[in-house]
Each structure stands twice: as C-alpha cells, then as structure tokens.
Amino acid sequence: MLSVLTSYLPWLALTIVIEVLVAWLFAPRAQRKQVLTACVVMQVFTHPLACAAVYYAEAPVSPVEVVVIVVEVLLYCALTKFTLRRAIGLAWVANVVSFVVGEVMGIILFQ
User: Fold this and answer.
1) Residue 28: partners with Cβ closer than 8 Å, 6 or more residues away
2) Can you list the alpha helix ranges (DSSP code H) found in the chain?
3) d(CA 36, CA 44)
4) Contact of 91 with 69, CB cutoff 8 Å
5) Checking CA distances to 78, which of 44, 59, 88, 91 falls within 20 to 30 Å?
6) pLDDT per residue over 8-39, tens digit each?
7) Is the pLDDT of residue 103 over 70?
8) Closest by Cα among 69, 64, 104, 101 to 87
9) Half-sphere exposure of 67 (CA within 13 A, CB side)
10) What's the half-sphere exposure (Cβ side, CA atoms, 13 Å) at 56?
11) Is 68 left (phi over 0), alpha (psi -120 to 50) or beta?
12) Residue 111 has pLDDT above 90, yes or no
C-alpha cells in the first residue's frame, strides 16, 4: 500500500501545480486566493477518483476526463463567482494541460 501511495503522490502534486498555474491565469486578481484554494480542493477530490476509475476499474480515460471536467465546472461555479463560460474554460484548459503534461512525463519516465 505504501508503494502505491508513494508512486501516486508525485502525480497528484504535478496535477495540482499545473492546474493551480492555469487557475492563476484565469482568476481575476481579486479572486485569486479563493480560486486557487478551490482548485487545490477540487484536485484532492477529483484526481484520486479519476485515477481509481482508470487504473483500478479500467474505465476509459476520455469519459473519465469528461466527468472530471463537468464536476470541476460545477464546483468552480459553486465555490467562486465564475460565470459558467469562465468555469468551462478553466476546467477544460487545466485538465487538457495537466493530462498532456502527465502523458509526456509518463513517456519520459517510463519508456
């Protein structure tokens, strides 16, 4: 169990860093603290569930990512004053960027 956790945590940390950077770009200056806090909370919630769905339940990645984006859009709207349009943009861009970076890092590290 410890080896699973130690191999998982760097990926969670990478996702949090990437998505916080994207959220920082999307957030108006007056809302940055609130948006960045919401972003971290969402990643701690959605990332483990998405990883479990893909790696343990063998769910296809694309539908899992779509569900994650929908959940994050709803949470950004609920936890911040973001419009639906801004929440969709942030959730989509953050997840695409973190997915691509994660895939590239996986290729570099494991092939």
Assistant:
1) none
2) 2-26, 32-51, 61-79, 84-110
3) 13
4) yes
5) 59
6) 899 999 999 999 999 999 999 999 999 999 99
7) yes
8) 69
9) 14
10) 7
11) alpha
12) no
